[in-house]
Amino acid sequence: MIAGAGIGGLTAALALAAKGFRAVIIEKAEKLEEAGAGIQLSPNASRILIELGLEPLLAPHAIALDAVSMMSAPSGRELTRIPLGDAARFRYGAPYWIVHRADLQAALLAKVNDNPDIELRLGLQFDDVASHVKGVTVVQRKDMAREPETALALIGADGLWSSVRNHLFPDVRPSFSGRIAWRGIIEASQVPRDFREKRVQLWMGRNAHLVAYPISGGRRVNLVAIVEGEWNRPGWSEPGNAAEIKAYFDAPKWPVPARLMVAAVESWRRWALYSIKDGGVWTKDNENVALLGDAAHAMLPFMAQGAGMAIEDAAVIAHCLAQSPGDVAGAFARYAGQRRARVARVQRAARMTGQIYHLGGPFAAARDLGIRWIGGAQLLARQDWIYDQRLG
């Protein structure tokens, strides 16, 4: 059984079914809404999705990026361009895709619904779990009705505020990073031509940065603005005030192209950025319960690896279970052992990258000089440890 029908949960179900397991997904939402904005799928993640047969469903919607442009807010100039496109596919054996989150979810859902070994149950919330010699008993709840069900194992893929994690590790709480992500979408016809190119534009400025890239087959542009701020409200996502975010990107600190992009967004949503301790939390000894994705290791988005790590988790947990289906607790322990160090390294890299993006003054000048000196090809090579990961 899998708690949560997000990207990690749906991918885990497909990976498990491919290994001969039957998977039941329980999801508290009554309907899987097509929500969210753009998402980057680097080759370590797209490779797994392709192996699961998703390329025909994703190809009409995904954009294979040509490059990432590193832009300096103080100067308004491009510092370097990291090559992707055919070069990345040749180097890593898989594309670097940009896709709308709703399109990825729809593709995963279509594949899940076509698989007779996967059952998706909507409107059911995880309530409790108990391990025993036959596996686990998972208690599902709908309104006030509670229903127990026996399964081989439970995988918690229920996101940042995971109920399964709270059961396993009640003392572990996500920590607010002091950063807030503002996300908006613009029709491509409303922006200059160079913003419609198949590349990510990453603008770096003091205490803020801006990311723009095309989605939905190039018909729209996804914009993410990361700023520093306070968060004293319940929850972690809410509508954003356009005037407030424009104030972060005023002149003369930000060049005209960046300000035009921010001004073009009509409707914003803002997310408080939380993370879980480096290395994450995965499973407990002798428990047939494990976590994946944000439930295990929520991380800052500055390496664009949140979804990628969840997709990797799904592939590894299915592989470990297939190796020893009679020893689930042992399989989960191996899964945690294989994932912990890599995830911790990505979490640290994301945190450091965010700090570098937000430098100001002479530190920003030194950063910009260093980026120009290193060059795009070498910057790509520095990502080999992430993008070229091959999972057994």
How would you sum up this structure in a few lines?
This protein has 392 residues and is of the alpha/beta class. The protein has helices spanning 7-18, 43-51, 55-58, 85-92, 101-113, 163-168, 242-248, 256-264, 294-297, 306-323, 328-357, 361-374, 376-381, 384-387, and strands spanning 2-3, 23-27, 38-41, 63-64, 67-72, 78-83, 97-100, 118-122, 125-132, 135-142, 145-151, 154-156, 175-187, 199-205, 208-215, 220-228, 237-240, 268-275, 289-291.
Q: What does this protein structure show overall?
A:
This protein is of the alpha/beta class and 392 residues long. The protein has a domain at 2-62 and 100-174 and 276-353: FAD/NAD(P)-binding domain. The chain has helices at residues 7-18, 43-51, 55-58, 85-92, 101-113, 163-168, 242-248, 256-264, 294-297, 306-323, 328-357, 361-374, 376-381, 384-387; strands at 2-3, 23-27, 38-41, 63-64, 67-72, 78-83, 97-100, 118-122, 125-132, 135-142, 145-151, 154-156, 175-187, 199-205, 208-215, 220-228, 237-240, 268-275, 289-291. An 8-stranded mixed beta sheet has the order 6-5-14-15-16-13-18-17, with helices on both faces. A 5-stranded parallel beta sheet has the order 8-2-1-12-19. It has a 3-stranded antiparallel beta sheet with strand order 3-7-4. Helix 1 packs parallel to helix 5 (101-113), helix 2 (43-51) packs across helix 10 and helix 10 (306-323) packs antiparallel against helix 11. The longest helix has 30 residues, at 328-357. It is globular. The two termini are 23 Å apart.
